[in-house]
Write a structure and sequence with these properties.
Number of strands: 12
Order of helices and strands: HEHHHEEHEEEEHEHHEEHHEEH
Structural class: alpha+beta
Strand content: 25-35%
Number of helices: 11
Radius of gyration: 21 Å
Helix content: 25-40%
């Protein structure tokens, strides 16, 4: 149970991976064709965020986070202001992460230097650190690769699997390399209320894979996703710009079919069926938009149930 709640919080905060305010385009490279931004402070102040934090207290996890902060001088939830992730196409090495928060630089660097594959590279007056990152599953290493990063002005952690992208990101933050312009992600809405996550992408069809699940994305040119909460109601706004009006009509029909199929699964997954019924689509010219809204308490219960089921499945797998 405890592990499931931790995974819920970390996963939601990192995926819904990217702040103490709206997206700062001057921190994003002009070469980026996708970007995601999460406002941690706004999320923590939302009803959904408060429900999750209270569950952490109920399960004794908050105490563990406080103990972690005493050792590393960094609280994983309280000391992160915002996270921005952007990239150029697909691939880990083509993405960069910017974490704006409160860090003890000396302790962070000391921890990185303990890595057996640690290395240091100079980029102007900034030291870029390299370390071996290991992805584990059931305590077994399933993948390993080098990661690179630095702390810019003792405030922003810059990380990527591509060292050249770290260098470029530093230059963008310095103003020595061009940053994203206002027109770079034109589909991203402005002025939305209570937003704690937003993402946008250009050239989506070129990045989509050949899997059947990517059929809609292959017909998409631009994408926008906004997640937030207003007056205790959680909402998601989706915008898809198709490559043509015909493609938009096709995409709309596919999405309507998915929603209708999910809505029929009431007995097996009643909460998911309820969510599907609350999802509304519209199509005009070559643009498909979707809107979902429900009370935050319902979303919290759904997320909690899903992570607990996944945890139970994982425990059963380990016993066989």
């Amino acid at each position: 149970m405890r592990k499931s709640i931790v995974m819920l919080v970390v996963g939601l905060l990192l995926v819904t991976t990217a702040f103490g305010g709206p997206l700062s385009r001057n921190q994003v490279s002009a070469t980026a064709n996708w970007v995601a931004h999460a406002d941690y402070e706004r999320f923590n102040s939302s009803q959904l965020g408060k429900l999750i934090r209270q569950e952490l207290v109920n399960q004794g996890i908050e105490e563990k986070l406080v103990n972690f902060a005493r050792i590393f001088s960094f609280h994983p939830l309280n000391d992160v202001c915002d996270v921005t992730v952007y990239g150029i196409g697909k691939g880990r090495e083509k993405a960069v992460v910017l974490i704006d928060g409160r860090f003890d630089k000396e302790k962070v660097v000391a921890l990185v230097r303990m890595n057996p594959q640690h290395q240091e590279l100079a980029h102007g007056d900034i030291t870029i650190h390299g370390w071996l990152q290991e992805d584990r599953k059931h305590n077994e290493v399933v993948n390993s690769y080098m990661m690179y990063g630095c702390i810019y002005q003792d405030k922003i952690v810059v990380m990527s699997a591509g060292v050249d992208l770290v260098k470029q990101a530093i230059d963008v933050l310095r103003g020595a390399s061009q940053s994203a312009t206002e027109g770079q992600f034109t589909i991203m809405p402005a002025g939305a209320q209570g937003v704690f996550f937003q993402a946008a992408a250009n050239g989506v069809g070129d990045m989509a894979g050949q899997e059947e699940q990517a059929a809609v994305l292959r017909q998409t040119d631009k994408l926008s996703l906004v997640i937030g909460e207003t007056e205790g109601k959680f909402y998601i706004d989706l915008g898809l710009v198709a490559k043509s009006e015909e493609a938009a009509q096709s995409m709309n029909k596919v999405l309507e079919g998915i929603i209708a199929y999910t809505a029929l699964a009431g007995q097996e997954k009643p909460r998911l069926a309820e969510f599907a019924q609350k999802t509304k689509l519209s199509c005009a010219q070559n643009i498909v938009t979707g809107h979902f809204e429900t009370i935050s308490e319902s979303v919290f219960q759904f997320l909690k149930e899903q992570w607990e089921k996944r945890q139970q499945t994982g425990a059963q797998t380990q016993t066989h």
